[in-house]
Amino acid sequence: MFIRMSPRGLASAFIVASVALAACGSDDSSSEPVETQSVTTDPPTSEPVATDPATSDPATSEPEVTAAVWRGIEPNTTPMGAEDTAAIDATFQEILDPAGDEIPGMWVGIWSAEAGQYSAAYGKAELGGAEATIDDHGRIGSVTKTFTATAILKRVDSGELGLEDTIADILPDLAASYPDVAAITIDQLLGMQSGIPDYANTGLVIQQVVDDPTIELAASEIIDKVLTELDLEPAGTGGYSTTNYLILGEMLVAIDGRPVEEIINEVAAEAGLTSSALGAPGDNTMPDPFSHGYVMQAGAAGLAEIGATVEPGTDVTDWTVSWGGAGGGMYSTIADLGLWAASGSGTSLLSDGLIEQRLTTRKTVEGLDYGLGIIDFGNGWIGHSGQLIGWEALVLYDTDTGDVAVAVVNETSGLIAAEFALATIFPDYGETLGY
Question: Which CATH code of 2.70.70.10, 1.10.260.40, 3.40.710.10, 1.10.10.10 fits the domain covering 8-62+75-377+409-432?
Fold first, then answer.
């Protein structure tokens, strides 16, 4: 439900929650909305399908399952009225004003079933340079996983793959080199139940990127590094892992015979997206206009936790994105992300039976209710969040109401600000975050 309320309490909490933001002063130029515009989307839809809830040990191969429902409700694309627009703007202003340059820019899209559609760009696409606009492209990190998962699931629908197919079935050379992962299934890879460790939240690969931002890392190279240097958990153990999605990307290449970016970009095109893509290996650019990505104080502190030292204020726009690949390398725009969110992050491109399987979630050790390449945030909200060094993104769809909310920031740890704001605007989403 869309309501009007003061964001003051959340703004105060945000300042307390982030050490970096607590120390900074305000900068009006960084938080003033530069451009707002209503964007019409026409998402694909699907008939409602409900899942059957069940329970079990979340740390095993039969983890807890929660119910999720696909409603296929199209978002409200009527332009939002002035009063509601002002309320949303006040929410973001009060949270962003204390941040100053610590959050250079923020891009927001809201399609409220009750109030209509609103998009805005706040702050700077480049510090000391261009203002943010709603047409800017930005990196979306792990939101990429929802595209890769959809590409895999479409091949399950077509019969080219089965959810119980294993690494040995599709990637026999990988299985021969690492027999301990040979029996892991596509279902386990998609649903974060493989037991294969994550490279993206460790210093294993990130340190290489920080040491040499121009390095180009192939998916196979990263997979080898993970399976050689990190310890596996038993298959069926729930744990978030970007490594799973690099393996899924290699599976797509094996069965399709084409580069993974071509396959993923076809999914984006089928959903009607025109400004979203995974670049070819070695291509670290985005189309104009685009936002620069930054590591500010909060982002630097987060990287330091995994042993990577980056000077606060570093512009990482030209840094390699090769390490993200099929697990986190895409870029997009607010308009495209809204369209993707409204499709249930690609869910509406699937058959009814597979929709049910995709939205049946299992617990990870991090506490996520994770489906097949999608997160059930609770209270009907599904989607995904994402981070690549320099940017963060959030894509949300309310299966109960048809509400859509998306956000991008061009700072490595700035997404919390968007989450606080959206928790004010959509209190049922706020409840999922414990607000």
Answer: 3.40.710.10
